Amino acid sequence: MIRIGVVTFPGTLDDRDALRAVGLAGAEGVPLWHADQTLGDVDAVVLPGGFSYGDYLRAGAIARFAPMMQAVRDAAQGGMPVLGICNGFQILTESHLLVGSMIKNNHRTFICREQRLTVESTNTAWSSSFTTGQVITIPLKNQDGQFVASERQLDELEAEGRVVFRYKDTNPNGSRRNIAGITNAAGNVVGLMPHPEHAVEVGFGPDAPGPMRSGLDGLGFFASVINHLTHPVSLPAAVSEDNGKEGR
């Protein structure tokens, strides 16, 4: 069975939800602790949402230095699928596994809503179960959710097909070019602000056609990585010569 590790940092909120989502998708969820130095026998890693280390300094800045993150960095650079959700996305940018930065929402307030996204790329380990242009609904809850990057970095993300999800209908936090989620050049590391682990179970997800709270679009993220690991193929995402040098 595919084993997907979920890292808990001090201040993490959604690790249990992520573990449940992994199980509902058909994999085994493996709890991982921030102070440990090895990933153990896992096939993929999820960095869940929350407020790691209280978001002191800035969101994700301290978690970057957790012992577990060195193992995550090494595994990601070796091709292991890594998904960063909300605070996990912030940690991935602080760790330079993804480009850009996350800053305060442009309206300076916390937001919690059901958010429609357009799937821009299916060429990643975490999005291959969707179709390009598909519109999905995923819960969103953040305070530091505004994605920013230099114009050069934004142009590179667009040109290389590394924008994976884009906000549809409205931009909830001021993110540049309506970007909700991106990938690295190799397609194995994905970060996004919305929370797919909150859209995996009837009765507890977003509203959808049919019964209330029946939205299950979040399952596609975990189904994608399970399929990727079970039937490995080369990801068609563009790979640049400076992959691994994605500092801001």
Explain what this protein looks like in three dimensions.
The chain has 248 residues and is an alpha/beta fold. It has one domain (3-230): 3-Layer(aba) Sandwich (Rossmann fold). It is built from five helices and eleven strands. The protein has helices at residues 15-25, 67-77, 87-94, 151-159, 219-230; strands at 3-8, 28-33, 44-47, 82-85, 101-103, 111-119, 135-142, 146-148, 163-167, 179-183, 189-192. The strands form two sheets. The protein has a nine-stranded mixed β-sheet with strand order 2-1-3-4-11-10-9-6-7, sandwiched between helices. Strands 5-8 form a two-stranded antiparallel ribbon. α1 packs across α5. The longest helix has 12 residues, at 219-230. The chain is globular and about 40 Å long. The protein starts with a strand and ends in an 18-residue tail after the last helix.
What are the key terms here?
single chain, 248 residues, alpha/beta, Rossmann fold, 9-stranded mixed beta sheet, 11 strands, 21% helix, globular, disordered C terminus
Structure in a nutshell:
The chain has 248 residues and is of the alpha/beta class. It is built from 5 helices and 11 strands, in the order E-H-E-E-H-E-H-E-E-E-E-H-E-E-E-H.
Task: Summarize model confidence as the mean pLDDT.
Answer: 92
Roughly how much helix do the residues carry, as a percent range?
10-25%
Could you name the CATH homologous superfamily?
Class I glutamine amidotransferase (GATase) domain
Q: Let me know the number of strands.
A: 11
Shape: globular
- Going by helix content, strand content and strand pairing, the class is alpha/beta
Count of helical segments? 5
Order of helices and strands: EHEEHEHEEEEHEEEH
Poorly predicted runs: 238-248
Second-tier CATH architecture: 3-Layer(aba) Sandwich
Sheet with most strands: strand arrangement: 2-1-3-4-11-10-9-6-7
Please give the domain count. 1
Rg for CA atoms: 16 Å
Q: How many angstroms does the end-to-end distance come to?
A: 37 Å
CATH-derived topology: Rossmann fold
Strand content is 15-25%
Q: What is the CATH class name? A: Alpha Beta
Q: Main beta sheet: strand number and arrangement?
A: 9 strands, mixed
